[in-house]
Amino acid sequence: MKAVKAIRTPGGLSVRVDPRSAVIVLLLAAAAGAAGVVSIGSGDFPMSFGDVVATLLGDGTPIQEYIVQELRLPRVLVALLVGASLALSGAIFQSLSRNPLGSPDVIGFGQGSTVGALTVIVLFQGGSLAVAGGAVAGGLVTGIAVYVLAWKRGVHGFRLVLVGIGVAAVLTAVIHFLITKADLVDATRATLWMTGSLDGRDWAQVRPLLGMCAVLMPLVFLHGRSLRMLEMGDDAAYALGVPVERTRVVLMGSGVLFISVATAAAGPIAFVALSAPQLARRLTRSPGPNLAAAAVMGAALLMVADWVATHAFGDRRLPVGVVTGVLGGCYLLWLLVTERKAGRI
I need a labelling partner for 221 at 20 to 30 A (CA). Which of 46, 48, 60, 139 fits? Predict the structure, then answer.
């Protein structure tokens, strides 16, 4: 059996801690932070690891302070926050659907955000702030539509996935329709946005991401125990005292907001929401949603993918969405083969 420690806080709250999971979370957080420092130090003005750390602590030269604080740090923070947000959204929906394929970019929420953003770009020629608002609105409307369509004396996992896949297919058709109706400039802009990129990200994207994470992450972590019980089925969760539909609505709303705001900040970055929670679960070897491990895994994955996209191909800088799409597509094929061999699909 796995060793699980119970820690009692001064207020009388008992918290169960899995030592292996805690170690994995710390290691992944360290890896994400190290990748961020390496990324900050890379570029036309290279900086050593020590120089970057010193600059972040306020001991850099004026030029180093400017390069780190104004040019490179915002991009790294967006990558970390977007990766964590996508992974948490994936962990929530995979747990609610009790299906490793129940990822928000598979069951329509990512496509909904994309449709919202493209509507603003193609029909209204809106600026970056309006596009971000359109992405959030599109994700929320899609979340409500999927919930309503999947409702039948509750929202069950298998039905949620099937309805979500159907909605995703419809929204994909809408995306193609909007592209064909756009003029050349707007179509080019929309296509570039749809690849998912961290280029040009600044503090204007960091602040709303940070605010969302500050509000939603504690809310989701507080519902972690209930989410784990929901994985056992609605009847078992009811028997254990979980208000099932209320909890499901709170978690689904949080998951939709996570992916909507992340998409608004960086475009539709594929497969992080699908792969990060599964990789975290395999590393921790722990049942349940593994929310903390999934969050730091997503941050580390996107941070490393961004470094690969910008530095592994010489002078040719790729959008990070291209790298995550290739790696995530390979992971999806492996997951499908594994699930098929296990007889689950």
Answer: 139
How many Cα neighbours within 13 Å face the side chain of 312? 11
| Both tokens assigned to 125 | 């020629």
> In a structure prediction context, what are the per-residue pLDDT tens digits for the chain, which is 345 residues long?
455 555 554 544 445 667 888 888 899 999 999 999 998 888 778 888 888 888 888 887 888 888 888 888 999 999 999 999 999 999 998 888 887 777 888 888 888 888 888 888 888 877 778 888 888 888 889 888 888 888 776 666 677 788 888 888 898 899 888 888 888 887 887 887 888 888 878 888 888 889 989 999 999 999 888 888 887 777 777 787 778 778 888 988 898 899 988 888 888 888 888 888 888 888 888 777 888 899 999 999 999 888 888 877 766 777 888 888 888 777 777 777 776 776 655
For residues 101 and 287, give the distance between their C-alpha atoms in angstroms, rounded to a whole number. 16
Domain ranges (residues) in the chain: 5-314
**DSSP codes of every residue in 173-186:** HHHHHHHHHS-HHH
Q: How far apart are CA 79 and CA 31, in angstroms?
A: 14
With CA atoms as reference, report the closest residue to 109 among 320, 276, 252, 244: 252
pTM equals 0.86
Provide the CA 210 distance to its chain's centre, in angstroms. 14
The torsion angles phi and psi of 241, rounded to 5 degrees, stand at 90, 15
DSSP state of 17: E
Q: Which amino acid is at 255?
A: G
Q: Which fold has domain 5-314?
A: ABC transporter involved in vitamin B12 uptake, BtuC (1.10.3470)
CA distances from 218 to 87, 89, 258, 295 (A): 15, 14, 13, 12
| Token pair listed for 105 | 């970019």
